[in-house]
Amino acid sequence: MIDQLKQDFRNFFGQESQYSFFAPGRVNLIGEHIDYNGGLVMPCAVTFGTHLLVAPNAAGKLRFRSINFAETAEIGLQPSYRKEGTLWFNYPIGVINYFTEYGKSPQGLDMLFYGNVPIASGLSSSASIEVVTAYALNELFKAGFTKLDLVKMAKRVENEFIGLNSGIMDQFSVAFGEAGKALKLNCENLDYEAVDCNLGDHVLAIINTNKPRKLAESKYNERVSECRRALKSLQTALPIENLCDIGTATFNLHAHLIEDSLVRHRARHVVEENDRVKLAAKALSENRLEEFGRLMYASHASLKDLYEVSGKELDTIVEFCLTRADVTGARMTGAGFGGCAIALVKAASFEDFSQAVSAWYTEKIGYAPSVYSSLIGDGVRSTNNRETNDAASTDKNLVVA
């Protein structure tokens, strides 16, 4: 695949690529919609992601191409850059904008992107694009940023340049992922622990609903606002800075302070989900997959009933998983409103599971899902003169969501 991308680079830009990089997508195993509430999350890097090939050019321009999208851009070097509509290249332009702001102005560059994450699936390729771009620029221009600096910069792109009020989990897991481990990440202080994630005789199934998830246009920002309202109500009696500063028992004693029942439901999900992450990390580290699976199902029920970010498509997949003895746990993953569900499936029956869930979903929804299995992979890295551990898919399905 890398050889083909190098040929594509020559065809697009009329020169050889000089550097290559890869950043994965991610799934969140448990801990949803609490990253922006100071909570614990437990993501892992997957083996799908974004490749970036780069070479300096003498034209003094930033030239962007993608194997996945027809839209291209050619931009002169500027003191600052602005978002252009909803086009895919806003993500790397946003990164370049902040490099320039920090006094690390890039020279002219030719940049070719290719991703094999399923389209609009919620596997976080926007973070993958941001992080691979930031990592590449840092390496090329010896800018001296730490990996954590790059994570924070990529989050700024998402929040300020793109305009999505998301937390730091996506960028962090894309950068710091470790093969065979989940990251128990404290989103408030960025302390993290790499938790052994021995799936034993199971595989991680990723089931894409194929319902596009346009997150920046969804109710995501509305949920952020509801959580802030809940926090403000609780702060009248509790010295807390985030909803996840308290546990379920304390929340139960003070829930009456949140007068709006809908906002109270949102806060209850956040607090209880944070507690589930703690239990899940312990279960995984002790190889208790059955307990972890139970927590996955409980997480999905809360996201469906209290946080209301699931939907018919995701619920249909989880309902099917509950009927299967070879599935240990399942839940929606990502922000919801479409996207993907994940399931722990016995490896020996994965193919049967894939066919059966596809048939069930197609009958209920009217079109087929896409089903994948993934390993837990490493984070962002240079791929010069080496192979990546990605799935080597030739699907042209880069996510921008």
UniProtKB/TrEMBL annotation:
Gene Ontology biological process terms in this record: galactose metabolic process
Family matches, as Gene3D superfamilies: 3.30.230.10, GHMP kinase, C-terminal domain
GO cellular component, one term: cytosol
Cellular compartment(s): Cytoplasm
Binding site for ATP: S66, A120, S121, G122, L123, S124, S125, S126
Residues annotated as binding substrate: E32, H33, I34, D35, Y220
Protein name per the record: Galactokinase
GO MF annotation: an example: ATP binding
Record's keyword annotation contains Magnesium: yes
Organism field: Hufsiella ginkgonis
Domain GHMP kinase C-terminal: 280-361
